[in-house]
Amino acid sequence: MDGAVGMTSVVLSDSFVKYDWLLFYDEKSLIHNKSKMMKITIRKANARGHAHHGWLESWHTFSFADYYDPQHMGFRSLRVINQDRIAPGRGFGTHPHRNMEIFSYLLEGQLEHRDSMGNGRVLSPGQIQLMSAGTGVTHSECNPKADAAAHLLQIWILPRQANLAPSYTEWHPDPALENAAKVLVISADGRDGSATIHQDADVYRLRLTAGETVDHFLGVDRGLWLQVIRGSIEVDGQTLHAGDAMSTETSGAWQFQAHADSEALLFDLR
Questions:
Q1: Largest CA distance in the chain
Q2: Which bin fits 109, alpha (ψ -120 to 50), beta or left (φ > 0)?
């Protein structure tokens, strides 16, 4: 990779180092006070942080790198949701992480991952890679295609404890569930073929056709975050579009209805 990639890697690494101690040891500061929350909170796509580095265009749902907003530091253990577009043949050079669960969900193109644990993979659309950084790893993520951009969500979740052994896992969609409305893709126990995360967190992929609905029950003392990827989804009388998100800490049954063919990630977090 050229100098621009390396320089950006330093920026991203520095941003992690800047927040690392605060993130893990002050996790309570990221937990919303339920008694002060509205039933539903909306995070609009056009209110997110935005960065354009030429080869990389990124939208930050929460504070990240040079984008800082004290009102948007995370939600419970969910710390980063970046929507990235990586130019052909470019990417993030080798850089370090520690004490963070990091996963990428590829939406378009291809993404090549290499890490210090010896893993080397090329992801295709719809696939997920999850890396537990633990005591420390280095990795790179690049777009191997010469003629198409890579489009992905990169998501960071705080681990349940510090200094775990680093690990790597993937989730590939079951062709039989390609159009299933709700599929578990990440969980703490790896059930139903999901990738395993070191946190009490369930992550579901929603794929809905226009007019279709799906339900989710949120338990007591848990939080729900819905990140819309494409289409439009109505929840509690509010319509969310691509890039929009909603959160709630109100337990009980929740229903999501698509107004167009839609895709989203649903996080159920302790």
A1: 51
A2: left
Indicate the residue type of 221. Answer: D
Q: What's the rounded Cα separation, in Å, for the pair 195 and 2?
A: 33
pLDDT at 260: 98
Mean pLDDT lowest among 1-10, 58-67, 169-178, 185-194 = 1-10
Task: Name, in order, each residue with C-beta under 8 angstroms of 238's C-beta and a sequence gap of 6 or more.
Answer: 40, 42, 246
- What the block records as the tokens of 18 is 């800047």
Q: Which residue has the tokens 């950006």?
A: 8
DSSP state of 9: H
Domain extents for the chain?
3-32+49-168, 175-269
Kindly report the CATH number that applies to the domain delimited by 3-32+49-168: 2.60.120.10
Q: What is the mean pLDDT of residues 29-38?
A: 39
Give the mean model confidence (pLDDT) for residues 147-169: 97
pLDDT at 36: 36
- Using the Cα atoms of residue 10, residue 15, residue 21 and residue 25 in order, give the sign of their dihedral: negative
- How far is 93 from 6, CA to CA, in rounded Å? 5
pTM of whole model > 0.70? Answer: yes
Residue-level pLDDT at 232: 98
CATH architecture of 175-269: Sandwich (2.60)
